[in-house]
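Work Package 3 committed the consortium to producing structural models of liganded targets before the mid-term review. Because experimental data for this complex are still outstanding, the team generated a predictive model from sequence and the ligand definition alone, so that downstream docking and mutagenesis planning could proceed in parallel. The input record is reproduced below exactly as it was submitted to the modelling pipeline, together with the SMILES string for nicotinamide-adenine-dinucleotide.
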Amino acid sequence: MAEILVTGGAGYIGSHTILELFAKTGFDVVSIDDFSNSDESTYGRIMEISGKEVTEHPLDLCDFDSLKKIFSMHRDIVGVVHFAAHKSVPDSVAKPLGYYSNNINSLINLLRVCKDYKVKNFIFSSSCAVYGNTDQLPVTEETPFEKAESPYGHTKQVCEGILENYCAANPTFKAISLRYFNPAGAHISGLTGEMPIGKPSNLVPAITQFAIGKYDDLTVFGNDYSTRDGSCIRDFIHVTDIANAHVKAIELLLKQKDNFYKIYNLGTGKGISVLEALHSFEKVSGKKLNYTIGSRRAGDVVEIYANNNLAKEELGWEPENSIDEIMATAWVWEQKLKVLESAKK
Ligand SMILES: NC(=O)c1ccc[n+]([C@@H]2O[C@H](COP(=O)([O-])OP(=O)(O)OC[C@H]3O[C@@H](n4cnc5c(N)ncnc54)[C@H](O)[C@@H]3O)[C@@H](O)[C@H]2O)c1
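The resulting structure, written out as tokens with the ligand in place, is given here.
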């Protein structure tokens, strides 16, 4: 059976993508993850939901020799979906070298091994962070990069550049970079979702963890931006919509011949402010959030949302979930996680 290698498959978006691959394609899935920001139990939840087993390899992608061994064991890999990376903006500001080293070396190692084993289809997890603090809104794939606001964003700019150069030099290698806006929400089953290690830096898990009582503070970082309510504006997109775009992207890649490198924005096209997102949560959960307003956070862009026309036209993809569905699924999952965590104690 043909296999797809998902790196970072135990992580948030990787695990939801594996679920969509199992639901919508006949591929087997091999996953590599070092659990630096995830937990092996994710694979069990994937099995519970899909009835299918992921072939898992606990491994740091920066370990080239071990990575090569995995490819030598799996000669049926037809494509790679590369999620594995460190992803926290504030963490990257504090620890830039760790971010450059992990995110860039992982990609280079994978490309080298793909060449050795003649794997020719590759999807890269990029981010709207590549656009920096642009004032051209909504951003299209053609919007020029501004200076990245964080080392994390810069790693994504560099990785996209590496991939583009590599495709140009290797015309039979085909790749797609998907620029995610703000993935959020959880699987519709309520059985899996995001499991941040430590205090989350993304808004939606920060809200749900505060609401459930894991943390006693919820801070809005800045309410003095030049936006409609003073808080930052983001394009929140449901994780299953993001996952579905990967299935479409794999299907598109497999149909292509040579000389193929494309970039697609994955967002809803709608900007939602941080305060509007908080109010959506309050509405769907019936819980009032006693948040505080703090100062601006280093590395945050002011406002960003996508023009997603290209993904709609060329991938045949359409995001289906609203901010309320994002908040509702995230809240169901947070409550389930509480049950799982107390059963562990
Ligand atoms: N979640 C977001 O808000 C967001 C937005 C834009 C882009 N992205 C990108 O999407 C991808 C997936 O993000 P996510 O939210 O699922 O993150 P995540 O942290 O939940 O998943 C990433 C997974 O990769 C693993 N990993 C990291 N470095 C590794 C290495 N060297 N070797 C093996 N495994 C490694 C981690 O343990 C984790 O399970 C990342 O590349 C991220 O930068 C995420």
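Reviewers should note the following from the model. The chain has a mean pLDDT of 96. These observations will guide the Year 2 experiments.
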